[in-house]
Amino acid sequence: MKFRNYLKVKSLEEFEQAIAAVEGSIVLLAGGSDLVVQARDNRFENHTVIDVLNIESLRQIEETDEYLEIGACVTHEEIAQSPLVKRFAPILAEASLSVGSLQIRNHSTIGGNIGNASPAADTLAPLAVMGAEVIVLSNGTERQVKLLDIIEGPYRTNLGDRDLIVKLLVPKQAETVRYNYTKLGRRKALSISRMTIAALLELDSEGVVTKFEMTVGSTFPKPMLFPDISAMLVGKQPTKDDISEVARSLSDKIPKIAGVRASTRYKQPVCRRLSERILKELIEGEQDA
Question: Could you say which of 3.30.160.150, 3.40.720.10, 3.30.465.10, 3.20.20.70 is the CATH number of the domain covering 57-171?
Answer without folding.
Answer: 3.30.465.10
